[in-house]
Amino acid sequence: MGGRNSYPDFRLVHSADGFEIKGLAYPGREASYDCNSQVPSGSHNGRTIFYVFGRYPAEPDGDTYPVLDLVICHGDFLNANHEYVHKNRSVKGFGSYGDIMIRDRKMYVAPTPFGLTSGTAHHQTLILPADALVDERFEQVGELVRVESPQIVVGYTFDLRSNSLTPECVANPAQGREHRFLAWRLQGMAGERVRMRNVAEVVAEVMAEADEND
């Protein structure tokens, strides 16, 4: 500091967090959501990312859309990988005359906190990594553990003749690693405890919703 053109370095970007808002109609699709060309992550460009999921009535009474329940979760609860970088790519030479381009623009479908857990419906819940600091205004309402899968997808091929999509998988070097999170609510709003649901059931619901929306 010092000098007439010097200013204290109070820029908010030094500790900035990012928030992505997701609205879900209720009743309706709630186990999964579309990630438009960007896989969920708890970190982006060096910033911590949080996801805000709010459910609103699909057929409201009047012109207002009240928030029925709310979950704010750290992005690592949805996906703990920070290394993957999304890129859109294209191939040329398609079609009878070889002058059509196919653009590979990926769409990701991820489970929501409402799909991954029980006890979050009709409440306001905050889900954070277990080592995150929380002040005395909050009380803990759940311990959640996510376990890394045996395999990870590293690529895929698409056959234009059969319209079949084939994934390429490798063994996950972090197989079995546990990522621990805690669920919190404001004091006096405890309500139902938050618990992880069965992974197989969640995957089945995500696949069913994806098929309905294809």
Biggest sheet architecture: 7 strands, mixed
Q: In one word, what is the shape?
A: globular
Kindly name the structural category: mainly beta
Average pLDDT for all residues? 88
What is the chain-wise order of helices and strands? EEEEEEEEHEEEEEEEH
Poorly predicted runs of 5 or more residues:
1-12
Task: Please report the distance between the alpha carbons of the first and last residues.
Answer: 58 Å
Q: What's the β-strand tally?
A: 15
Proportion of residues in helical segments: under 10%
Radius of gyration: 21 Å
Number of DSSP helices? 2
Q: What share of residues are in beta strands?
A: 35-45%
What is the total domain count? 1
Present the secondary structure layout.
Elements (H helix, E strand, L loop, with lengths): L16 E10 L5 E4 L7 E2 L2 E11 L11 E6 L14 E6 L5 E5 L3 E4 L1 H4 E2 L5 E6 L8 E10 L3 E9 L4 E8 L6 E9 L8 E2 L2 H15 L1
Parallel strand pairs: 1-4, 5-10
Antiparallel strand pairs: 2-8, 3-4, 4-5, 6-7, 9-15, 10-14, 11-14, 12-13
Describe this structure in a few short sentences:
The protein is mainly β and 214 residues long.
General description of the model:
The chain has 214 residues and is mainly beta. Helices cover 9% and strands 44% of the residues. It contains two helices and 15 strands. Strands 1, 3, 4, 5, 10, 11 and 14 form a seven-stranded mixed sheet that branches. A two-stranded antiparallel sheet has the order 2-8. A two-stranded antiparallel ribbon has the order 6-7. The chain starts with 16 loop residues before the first strand and ends with a helix.
